[in-house]
């Protein structure tokens, strides 16, 4: 192949070297606009996984890198005048300058043509002249910009300011300096990369940056390679104690806002993007250099494995995109955590450290326990001590008092519509469904959305509480739950609004009924989506009637014996649609700004609060974001939660979306939990209200991690309980927990121990002469390079 590579960074150079290694007949030219010794940045960090790939692909490069690595396992977190160390992580870093030099040498040795200080020709000319053209020209990629109509990039400019610096203080481990200043929180991400220097990244929210006066040079036009020396001088002064007399060095150091780059496509014809040109991930989770070199490795392999370029590029994108998107999801969680770091500085130091370490949701409690058991013990004890609890039980099995209701543990079975009622009456199916979940160990089991009127149903199969027959059937289910276990049972009340009169889920979710349907209503005559019925706009008389329906249903729920009531103000149903500017275009007192959109849901809440027994909790489920432009955001959710708590809500159950078919959710593990986190820290913690996290929480490790980090008080788990109705009890068995937080029904107690797997009873022979020395497997390893002896005077 005849290959043109635009960009002489690590990704472009590594790709060139790999392709030449695979076939010396390849003709490869690399264009780099900077000189070979123009290096911006200081150190780059690699994971063990990436290093293993590099070693398998090119042992020459791997050995050269290994000789230059600084290696360590510890993270030091400096917060509120205390330093906390967590071990067992595993890092390897080296100078970016050294990395570029050895990759340049490798390319020259293999016969790659390197053209430094040279702009690449136009990509159209290159595509016509070369078999393959690679855009490896970084975050500000000219290749991507020139072909934006093909790659369709999205550039998400974030809210914090950061600056890359270096220091001659050689850190022994990864350092987080969390500094509370009169302007707000400023943090440093620092790590060693050699025996002479460390990277020193300063970051703060843009609001803090402005209050601190760092915006004094905002309009200055710095020439290429120049640094903001005024800002660097202030950083030296601000972090003088942390630097301990050492210097800070600048290298093209200016204030930046991180931009997350995503592209709908990475290749077109014989043109392909790699590295930062194709995607970026925030520096707080890893190195862009790491991702770029992984891209290069995958691209080279696919080109070698496929006979045609189009097939190879398609295979490359198929292979790498899931990896990159997973990394970007984790990076998004991490960067948003640091953007909002001011929310957490009230936390007790051990919890703050755990929160910081688990911010991306990739590291969890179990990960940390494996890596550093002593730190995990400290986290457990700090969590229990802060709440006056027993420090032996896992966090998920600690009790919780919700209003006047005592829960044995912090696991909730989420409301899940079953669409299996007849005329709104729950039957044997609901008894078995909810009864099995209640006997499965959860502290609280929630009903599906129970509708307050026939026309408030989603489908003909929805349950209701608009008549006494329904109440009596629910009473049978509630009595079973109370008699057969320790779980409590909650009632979710709602009205379908514009999402009503649709088929059963398995017949066509959200599709209108073909016949026998009922009138659909809403705040405005706006359908839920294409093909949905157009709702009739509700009148004042309608609103009064619906509020009365909620009140009557709440009274029947109390008579049926439910322990808790949840008002459903999420997922685009009636009360949710009043809250959302996407569904509510009213011009009267119930539409317009958020305080008016809140009016009817709050009227219903107040009416239900009056009808519901004062000693039983009343909570609210909200959609924290509509996942569409111009819809509600997490900032609106904070104000919505604040309003309901002010009216007496005991808890906010934080879900998201389903307000419009146009939504574009960012799905992923625990993807909705950051919304709960924000509401808890900005509103609920100060008021005593609880926050319930939901959304793809799939493991007990996730539950424990969320609780220990202080992101939620309770966790609601839905589909996982459909997969395993005894999930909570099985989680106790997996963690070898036996106690009041997870009591097995007496009839099932014989099964309360995890069954043996194949060959778990096998006795293994001894296969080594000497046992490993525990000292060789130390949790804490520091970077302590050899020092030259001090001169003797």
From TrEMBL:
The lineage of its organism: Bacteria, Bacillati, Actinomycetota, Actinomycetes, Kitasatosporales. GO terms for molecular function: FAD binding; FMN binding; NADP binding; NADPH dehydrogenase activity. Pfam families: FAD_binding_3, Oxidored_FMN. Residues 125-328 form the FAD-binding domain. This is Bifunctional salicylyl-CoA 5-hydroxylase/oxidoreductase. NCBIfam families: PRK08255.1 (NF006101). CDD domains: OYE_YqiM_FMN. Residues 396-732 form the NADH:flavin oxidoreductase/NADH oxidase N-terminal domain. Residues 748-793 are annotated as: Disordered.
């Amino acid at each position: 192949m005849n290959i043109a590579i635009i960009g002489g960074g690590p990704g472009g150079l590594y790709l060139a070297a790999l392709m030449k290694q695979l076939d010396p007949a390849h003709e490869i030219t690399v264009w780099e606009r900077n000189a070979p010794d123009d290096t911006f940045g200081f150190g780059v960090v690699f994971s063990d996984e990436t290093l293993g790939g590099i070693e398998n692909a090119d042992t020459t490069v791997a050995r050269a890198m290994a000789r230059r690595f600084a290696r360590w396992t510890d993270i030091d977190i400096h917060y509120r005048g205390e330093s906390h160390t967590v071990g067992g992580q595993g890092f390897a870093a080296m100078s970016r300058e050294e990395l570029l030099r050895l990759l340049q040498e490798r390319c020259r040795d293999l016969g790659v043509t390197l053209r430094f200080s040279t702009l690449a020709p136009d990509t159209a000319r290159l595509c016509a002249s070369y078999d393959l053209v690679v855009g490896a020209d970084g975050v500000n990629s000219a290749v991507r910009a020139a072909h934006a109509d093909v790659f369709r990039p999205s550039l998400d400019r974030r809210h914090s300011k950061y600056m890359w610096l270096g220091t001659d203080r050689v850190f022994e481990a990864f350092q987080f300096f969390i500094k509370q200043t009169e302007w707000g929180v400023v943090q440093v991400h620092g790590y060693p990369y050699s025996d002479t220097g460390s990277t020193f990244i300063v970051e703060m929210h843009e609001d803090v940056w402005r209050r601190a006066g760092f915006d004094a040079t905002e309009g200055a036009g710095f020439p290429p390679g120049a640094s903001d020396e005024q800002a660097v001088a202030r950083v030296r002064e601000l972090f003088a104690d942390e630097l301990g007399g050492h210097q800070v060095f600048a290298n093209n150091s200016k204030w930046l806002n991180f931009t997350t780059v995503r592209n709908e496509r990475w290749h077109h014809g014989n043109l392909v993007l790699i590295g930062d040109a194709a995607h970026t991930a925030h520096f707080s989770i890893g190195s862009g250099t790491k991702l770029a070199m992984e891209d290069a490795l995958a691209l080279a392999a696919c080109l070698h494995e496929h006979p045609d370029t189009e097939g190879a590029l398609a295979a490359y994108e198929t292979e790498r995109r899931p990896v990159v998107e997973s990394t970007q999801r984790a990076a998004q969680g991490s960067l948003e955590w640091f953007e909002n770091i001011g929310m957490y500085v009230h936390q007790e130091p051990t919890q703050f450290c755990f929160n910081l370490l688990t911010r991306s949701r990739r590291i969890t409690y179990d990960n940390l326990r494996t890596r550093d058991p002593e730190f995990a013990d400290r986290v457990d004890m700090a969590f229990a001590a802060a709440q006056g609890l027993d420090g032996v039980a896992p966090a998920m099995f600690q009790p919780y008092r919700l209003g006047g209701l005592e829960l044995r543990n912090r696991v909730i079975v989420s409301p899940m519509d079953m669409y299996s009622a007849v005329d709104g009456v729950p039957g044997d199916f609901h008894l078995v469904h909810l009864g099995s979940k209640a006997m499965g160990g959860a502290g609280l089991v929630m009903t599906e959305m129970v509708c307050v009127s026939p026309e408030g149903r989603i489908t003909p199969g929805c349950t209701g509480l608009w008549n006494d027959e329904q109440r009596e059937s629910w009473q049978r289910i509630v009595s079973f739950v109370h008699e057969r276990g320790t779980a409590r049972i909650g009632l979710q009340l709602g009205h379908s609004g514009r999402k009503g009169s649709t088929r059963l889920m398995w017949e066509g979710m959200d599709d209108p009924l073909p016949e026998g349907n009922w009138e659909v209503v809403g705040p405005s005559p706006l359908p839920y989506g294409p093909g949905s019925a157009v709702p009739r706009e509700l009148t004042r008389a309608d609103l009064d009637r619906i509020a009365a329906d909620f009140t009557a249903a709440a009274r029947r729920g109390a008579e049926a014996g439910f322990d808790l009531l949840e008002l459903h103000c999420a997922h685009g149903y009636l009360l949710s649609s009043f809250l959302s500017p996407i569904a509510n275009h009213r011009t009267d007192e119930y539409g317009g700004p958020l305080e008016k959109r809140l009016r009817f849901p709050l009227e219903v809440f107040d009416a239900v609060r009056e009808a519901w027994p004062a000693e039983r909790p009343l909570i609210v489920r909200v959609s924290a974001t509509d996942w569409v432009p111009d819809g509600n955001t997490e900032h609106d959710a904070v104000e919505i939660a604040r309003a309901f708590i002010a009216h007496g809500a005991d808890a906010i159950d934080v879900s998201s979306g389903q307000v419009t078919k146009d939504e574009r959710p960012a799905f992923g593990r625990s993807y909705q939990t950051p919304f709960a986190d924000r509401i808890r820290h900005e509103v609920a913690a100060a008021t005593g209200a609880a926050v319930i996290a939901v959304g793809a929480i799939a493991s007990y490790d996730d539950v424990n991690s969320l609780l220990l980090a202080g992101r939620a008080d309770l966790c609601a788990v839905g589909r996982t309980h459909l997969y395993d109705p005894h999930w909570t009890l099985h989680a106790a068995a997996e963690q070898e927990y036996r106690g009041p937080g997870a009591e097995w029904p007496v009839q099932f107690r014989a099964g309360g121990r995890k069954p043996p797997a194949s060959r778990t009873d096998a006795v293994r022979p001894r296969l080594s002469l000497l046992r490993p020395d525990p000292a060789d497997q130390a949790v804490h390893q520091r970077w302590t390079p050899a020092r030259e002896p001090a001169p003797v005077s």
